[in-house]
Known about the structure:
Blueprint: H1 2-13, E1 19-21, E2 24-26, E3 30-32, E4 54-56, E5 73-76, E6 79-82, H2 91-102, E7 108-113, H3 118-128, E8 135-139, H4 156-169, E9 174-177, H5 185-194, E10 199-202, E11 206-209, E12 211-212, E13 217-218, E14 224-228, H6 233-244, E15 251-254, H7 260-269, E16 273-276, H8 279-282, H9 286-300
Parallel strand pairs: 3-16, 4-7, 7-8, 8-9, 9-10, 10-15, 15-16
Antiparallel strand pairs: 1-2, 5-6, 6-14, 11-14, 12-13
Amino acid sequence: MAALNSAAEASERAVNMSVEIAGVSFKNPVTVASGTFGSGMEYCEYVDLNRLGAVTTKGVANIPWAGNPTPRIAETYGGMINAIGLQNPGLETFLKRDIPFLNKFDIRIIVNVCGRSKEDYIDAVEQLSEAPVDMLEINISCPNVKEGGIAFGQRADLAEDITKAVKKVSKKPVIMKLSPNVTDITEMAKAVEAGGADAVSLINTITGMKIDINRRTFAVANKTGGLSGPAIKPVAVRMVYQVANSVKLPVIGMGGIADASDALEFIMAGATMVSVGTANFSDPMTTIRVIDGIEDYMIKNNVKDINELIGCVR
């Protein structure tokens, strides 16, 4: 009888945490923000990767990038500034080392792709099209060397053009990662939707600066860097809400998520999935706490399906 009661209680507590984006199903709506989790190798000793909805890898380019000079990270009130410069080993190493590692786990794989020209992106996406991965996230905050260094994600025409180019060669669903460093985030979302994107993720970091008053110089060698962490969450939630209500694409929301309540704000604003970023550095178990916290919220509030919460705030 006790066993039957336990089974009944488990059934009553069961909730559906699964979501779907562009035909790809995820066991729950939680992944990690690119650049904050590597490819999981650094975290697998602490985090059961099988629990995550997906691992989103650090940005990778068709050839190795050395990144920016040091110092490249500075702590700020409510977050951090980074100017890593998308240092990565290049696709050849990534395909031989990172993908086989991730394929050991029961997990979806989202590969973040960066490039300095349209040709770079096309080359990388073509190489990844036959790889055993689930989706590609295209980082359009990279400087376009052919446009004087302006990021692809800061001009709608460039964003649409790079989306079209990538979609033309990709055999995987494409997520376009949007930069918040624009006048109107909805304009950029509409541009990548017009270019054929399957989903969008946002926000990337906000450009910031910190001065080291003791050294009387910039805290990071690049002078400016990307601000992330709790300080940017209200901006991120607002932008996710705007985008979710301006395009028909699924949204992956991120920006300062540190616990389940943060994640639920993004989901209620319209995000189908959420990414945990900077919080991974201070607490590697953040993703697991977010997953468990969302489930606890659903049980407590009698929400049977996570999809009931997506975009419930209008």
